């Protein structure tokens, strides 16, 4: 078995070389049309074992054809690039294959996860009674926050179910998971209130309070406000301080969904965007976004750790047989069996220090400044976004953003997305890949402009 594993790891190293060479020479993968996928690649599962050389060739073909998310021409999603020290941790986690529910099977990995949570709570400004866990993603973080808010209002709901009409609040620019989570929790999608945003995409506090008053007058029970630190399209930060005033006044749970940009906690220069975060009840961020760790690496922090335990702890004698609750992390997580997502973040943080994480975050804001400066100095562009965001939204020569982004993708030029705010639709260019340089940002614009000049027929 050991010799087989060594051979597999040697094959892995060979495939890594293939991938890195492909990324250097062809930063955008050749697109396979969805309807042609199964005729282009051998994705079938065979009855008999595959010969080694044929197996290697299939893996190579799949690698080459898969969209490349780490190159300097990928700007489509809210993640990108690679941090090598984080990849090291992820590979070690795969080899160790620990599950994180008990100290008995995870050992020091429990301490690694708890150290990350402790340091992160300190950065947010939570006290000694705080804690957290690693969910499967930002959507799950939001769901856990909502469940804790529900149970904080009435712990008997866990047993008896929702007996009143509970209402929850989020901005119109917030993540779509809020609607799903209301459904899962028994609160219901119809009881989510979407609050208007200002021209920056930030929730308007006065609109929130007015809606809360209306719901109370109608016999509803408000329990929860979801604020956003980095909206999906414009990258806006809701005014947490003002929202905290309202939540304290009406005794509502305040969650800060920082899945996109919550890693600003590491930046002295930019953490003012999260002013008031220490007054929230829960705070989440994804290290697989701004901090460049491999997917997934999501963290939810809770000011009062008893809320985490009240909502998610469940006795299981067959599982929790040794050590105390503080070391058996399954007591405060949604899942039982749980992948070790902490190690890859720890190997990165350990290697570069908090200063290195700060530099990663600040560099992304600097890259966004480079992009905005270029747009502002070029009359062919119209800028829709603003400073203090790593989402740079624009239109070029009045070309339909949907058509432009689709053509760039289909012609394997660059991968960038489009979005909308109000009545405007635009290219949404995110500078979340901290491996990029200012030259890479400027090269994107050159590549796009050259494509437009050469292919007007695709954009008509």
Walkthrough of the structure:
The chain has helices at 2-25, 37-40, 52-65, 84-96, 103-106, 108-124, 138-153, 157-160, 177-184, 205-217, 240-250, 305-312, 342-376, 401-410, 438-454; strands spanning 74-75, 131-133, 166-171, 192-195, 221-228, 253-258, 282-286, 298-302, 381-383, 391-396, 415-421, 424-430. Helix content is 43%, strand content 13%. The model has no long low-confidence stretch (mean pLDDT 94). The radius of gyration is 24 Å and the shape is globular. Among the domains are: 2-68; 99-341, Type I PLP-dependent aspartate aminotransferase-like (Major domain) (Aspartate Aminotransferase, domain 2, 3-Layer(aba) Sandwich), CATH 3.40.640.10. It is an alpha/beta fold. The protein is built from 15 helices and 12 strands. The termini are far apart. The strands form 2 sheets. It has a 7-stranded mixed β-sheet with strand order 2-8-7-6-5-3-4, sandwiched between helices.
Strand order in the sheet with the most strands: 2-8-7-6-5-3-4
Task: Identify the CATH homologous superfamily of the domain at 99-341.
Answer: Type I PLP-dependent aspartate aminotransferase-like (Major domain)
The top level CATH class name of the domain at 99-341:
Alpha Beta
CATH architectural arrangement of the domain at 99-341: 3-Layer(aba) Sandwich
The outline comes out as globular
Structural class, from helix and strand content?
A: alpha/beta
Helix share, percent? 40-55%
């Amino acid at each position: 078995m050991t010799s087989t594993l060594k051979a597999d790891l040697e094959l892995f190293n060979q495939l890594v070389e293939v991938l890195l060479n492909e990324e250097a020479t062809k930063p955008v993968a050749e697109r396979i049309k969805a309807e042609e996928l199964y005729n282009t690649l051998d994705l079938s599962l065979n009855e008999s074992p595959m010969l080694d050389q044929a197996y290697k060739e299939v893996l190579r073909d799949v690698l080459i054809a898969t969209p490349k998310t780490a190159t300097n021409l990928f700007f489509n999603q809210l993640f990108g690039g690679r941090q090598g020290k984080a990849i090291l941790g992820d590979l070690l986690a795969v080899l160790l294959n620990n599950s994180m529910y008990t100290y008995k099977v995870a050992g020091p990995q429990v301490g690694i996860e708890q150290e990350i949570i402790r340091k992160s709570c300190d950065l947010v400004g939570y006290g000694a009674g705080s804690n957290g866990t690693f969910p499967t993603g930002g959507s799950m973080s939001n769901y856990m926050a909502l469940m804790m808010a529900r149970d904080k209002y009435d712990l008997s709901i866990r047993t008896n179910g929702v007996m009143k009409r509970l209402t929850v609040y989020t901005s119109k620019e917030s993540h779509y998971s809020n609607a799903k989570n209301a459904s899962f929790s028994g609160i219901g999608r119809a009881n989510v209130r979407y609050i208007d945003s200002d021209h920056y995409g930030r929730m308007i506090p006065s609109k929130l309070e007015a809606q809360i008053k209306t719901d109370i007058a109608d016999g509803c029970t408000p329990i929860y406000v979801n604020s956003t630190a980095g909206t999906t399209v414009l990258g806006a930060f809701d005014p947490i301080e003002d929202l905290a005033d309202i939540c304290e006044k009406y005794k509502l749970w305040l969650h800060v969904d920082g899945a996109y940009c919550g890693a600003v906690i590491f930046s002295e220069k930019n953490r003012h965007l999260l002013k008031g975060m220490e007054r929230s009840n829960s705070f989440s961020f994804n290290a697989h976004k701004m901090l460049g760790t491999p997917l997934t690496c999501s963290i939810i922090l809770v000011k009062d750790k008893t809320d985490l335990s009240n909502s998610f702890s469940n006795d299981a004698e067959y599982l929790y047989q040794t050590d105390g609750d503080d070391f058996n992390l399954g007591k405060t997580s949604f899942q039982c069996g749980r992948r070790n997502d902490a190690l890859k973040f720890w190997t990165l943080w350990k290697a570069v220090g908090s200063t290195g994480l700060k530099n990663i975050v600040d560099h992304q804001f600097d890259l966004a400044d480079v992009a905005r400066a270029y747009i502002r100095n070029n009359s062919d562009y119209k800028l829709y976004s603003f400073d203090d965001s790593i989402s740079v939204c624009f239109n070029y020569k009045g070309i339909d953003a949907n058509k432009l982004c689709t053509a760039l993708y289909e012609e394997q030029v660059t991968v960038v997305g489009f979005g909308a705010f109000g009545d405007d639709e635009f290219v949404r260019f995110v500078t979340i890949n901290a491996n990029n340089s200012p030259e890479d940002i400027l090269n994107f614009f050159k590549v796009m402009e050259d494509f437009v000049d050469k292919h007007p027929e695709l954009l008509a």
